[in-house]
Amino acid sequence: xxxxxxxxxxxxxxxxxxxxxxxxxxxxxxxxxxxxxxxxxxxxxxxxxxxxxxxxxxxxxxxxxxxxxxxxxxxxxxxxxxxxxxxxxxxxxxxxxxxxxxxxxxxxxxxxxxxxxxxxxxxxxxxxxxxxxxxxxxxxxxxxxxxxxxxxxxxxxxxxxxxxxxxxxxxxxxxxxxxxxxxxxxxxxxxxxxxxxxxxxxxxxxxxxxxxxxxxxxxxxxxxxxxxxxxxxxxxxxxxxxxxxxxxxxxxxxxxxxxxxxxxxxxxxxxxxx
Length: 274
Ligand SMILES: [Zn+2]
Known about the structure:
The protein has 274 residues and is of the alpha/beta class. It has helices spanning 20-29, 34-43, 56-67, 83-87, 90-99, 122-139, 151-161, 179-187, 197-200, 204-212, 242-253, 257-272; strands at residues 3-8, 46-52, 72-76, 105-114, 143-148, 170-172, 191-194, 218-220. Helix 3 (56-67) runs parallel beside helix 5 (90-99) and helix 6 (122-139) packs parallel to helix 7.
């Protein structure tokens, strides 16, 4: 059985630069050896990992990190939390665009809108998302979307950039929204990324949404070092935890672990070309 972690932030394990929150969490866990993290993933059958960048420095780190590691690929992105900085900095956006043609870069993101935390101004968030959609179209790359409490603003932007002739391909990562937005995502041909949240959310309607996701649109992810699945809450999340989420989902959906593993791995290979 082979699994893919389609969304993790392991490029900052033991790193001295990169995204500050992720680095702090790895640091807290006392884990400074990326090779050990990858080995534990491989032991759990997680044979492919997408290392997702959240800002310019972190994306650069991801691109470097995956170069010599055959199990890893990179996504380069500007997270909505960081949008204020990039909305005002054209030279940083240029440097970001240059990263997209580097080897093993398979996606743009994570990018999107986060009105829950609103760490950046909404206007900046929209502008930086639009910039990344232009690049995704230009480089013909799929997009890893982070959308939280912001779908009403997200869909009109998405629909301006995606057409039947030139659709934007991608995944709604860490999906926790309504079945109406699930349906809309599916209609647009987007994949739905599910992580440890499914194992610990107490919301019954949320669990119903996870059961509704068609297998052929489902992707597994961890968002490591965040969102550790139950019953391991309190520990650091690692890519090997994909297996825990998979086992939980299989129980909830009444499907075989092997079936979900095979289909989601094929989905990830199709979307990211890995
Ligand atoms: Zn993430």
